[in-house]
Amino acid sequence: MLTKAQLIKLLKDRILILDGAMGTEIQGYNLSEADFKGEEYKNWNYELKGNNDILSITKPELIKEIHANFINAGADIIETNTFSANSISQKDYNLEDFSYELNKASAEIA
Fold first, then answer.
1. Per DSSP, what are the bridge partners of residue 18?
2. What is the sign, positive or negative, of the torsion defined by CA atoms of 60, 63, 68, 69?
3. How far apart, in Å, do the first and last CA atoms of the chain sit?
4. Backbone torsion region of residue 25, taken as left when φ is above 0, otherwise alpha when ψ lies between -120 and 50, otherwise beta
5. Residue 10 burial (CB count, 10 A)
6. Is the pTM of this model over 0.70?
7. What are the start-end ranges of the H helices in the chain?
8. d(C-alpha 68, C-alpha 25), whole Å
9. Residues linked to residue 77 through DSSP beta bridges, in sequence order
């Protein structure tokens, strides 16, 4: 990880490339409900398909692969897989109390 001073120096030297659209990449994998639930949530009584943020817990290797693909394509900066990892958005999946875990897992992967 770069320090603030290192990042500022890089920004003065060149344009840095931010990774691409995580959600679009995830959609390309055509994941099933079982993929989204994984072992961790296999008995969850709510549908989780479409909750891309949960994949940081249930399919971390997939999220890691997508990050690696962006880096290999030339990205300098990687965002976390946390587009809707907040209690308001996660309420749709009855996971509003899991926002911290989602954000932590996503940050660790990135």
1. 77
2. positive
3. 11
4. alpha
5. 14
6. yes
7. 4-13, 22-27, 33-37, 55-58, 60-72, 87-90, 99-109
8. 12
9. 18
Token output for 63: 């999220």
Q: What is the pLDDT of residues 28-48, one digit of tens each?
A: 999 999 999 999 999 999 999
Cα dist. 10→14, 16, 17, 70, 75 in Å? 6, 8, 11, 19, 14
Distance CA 103, CA 98 (A): 9
Residue 77 phi/psi, 5-degree rounding, is -125, 130
Confidence of residue 92 (pLDDT cuts 50, 70, 90): very high
Indicate the residue type of 31.
Answer: L
CB-CB contact of 81 with 55 (8 Å): yes
Q: How confident is the model at residue 105 (pLDDT cuts 50, 70, 90)?
A: very high
Q: If you search the block for the tokens 């659209």, which residue do you land on?
A: 21
